[in-house]
Amino acid sequence: MNQSVIKALKLLNYFTVETPELTLKEIANKADIPKPTAYRLLSALESSDFLYKTKENEHDGRYRLGLKLLELGQIVSDQLEIRTIALPYMEELAQEINEVIHLVISSQDEATYIEKVDSARALRLYTRIGKSSPLYVGSGPKMLLANMPREQQEKILSDSELYRLGDHTPIDKQQLMQQLETIYQDGYAYSIGEQDADTTGISYPIYDSRNQVIAALAVSGLSSHFQGDNLKLLKNKTKQSAQTISRQLGYRGPDL
Questions:
Q1: Least packed by Cβ within 10 Å: which of 29, 86, 112, 175?
Q2: Structural Rg of the chain based on CA atoms
Q3: Are 67 and 49 within 8 A, CB to CB?
Q4: CA distance linking residue 216 with residue 103, whole number of Å
């Protein structure tokens, strides 16, 4: 990591509950760096909304932590909350349908798997908690991407070429955008062999108290299990679990 970035971020550690506001001179002294260097680092943090300046005079400036940190802290809090709330329902769902259950969120324009419950079957999927993947591969990631604004979708898909995992064949962006629209309209995502060969995934959205999609509840297993009446069962059970988790998170909209 760039050393200037590291030095700038370390300055944030000097703000505490007891000292929520610090002057340029105080920060320079604590960091044992010249005031011009401290000012340069603080200015970078201020321009990114990590800090804001409360006062400035010809001799010194005073700084407080910025709203960007509150925003980031809320994201972390939401992730911790959703994992805690969702896990018991994921475990219950896994016992009912005996398939692998994932909880997926979007982070830095990627899909991140933040929770997983394995099935009792011999099948083991190549997913782990903390794994990241493109938002255009798999039912869970696609569910998240489908519920983003069109401008954000286009930004994420702006790479010159998109490739499928495994065989590395190109993905048609126009067809992908049409698929995302279908997912959004239908309220669920369905994928076959996109992350693991011979497997199928089904995902439903999880909403928060602001009625925004913040995660996807994904069920994955051998494609042979996702057929006929069993497919209907898997879809119904997954949808019900996603609804229950959403309600526990404060969602008060119509049934999903």
A1: 175
A2: 23
A3: yes
A4: 6
Residues 6+ apart with CB under 8 A from 44: 4, 8
Instruction: Report the predicted TM-score, pTM, of the whole model to 2 decimal places.
Output: 0.71
Distances (CA, A) of 136 to 33, 174, 176, 189: 45, 12, 8, 11
Q: What are phi and psi of 255, to 5 degrees?
A: -55, 140
Task: Report the pLDDT value the prediction gives residue 122, as an integer from 0 to 100.
Answer: 63
CA dist., res. 156 & res. 153, Å (int)? 5
Return the pLDDT at 256. 65
Query: Cα dihedral angle (175, 181, 184, 186), rounded to 10 degrees?
Result: -80
Containing H/E element for 179? helix 173-186
Tell me how far apart the alpha carbons of residues 90 and 96 are, in angstroms, rounded to a whole number.
10
What is the rounded CA–CA span in Å between residue 92 and residue 112? 22
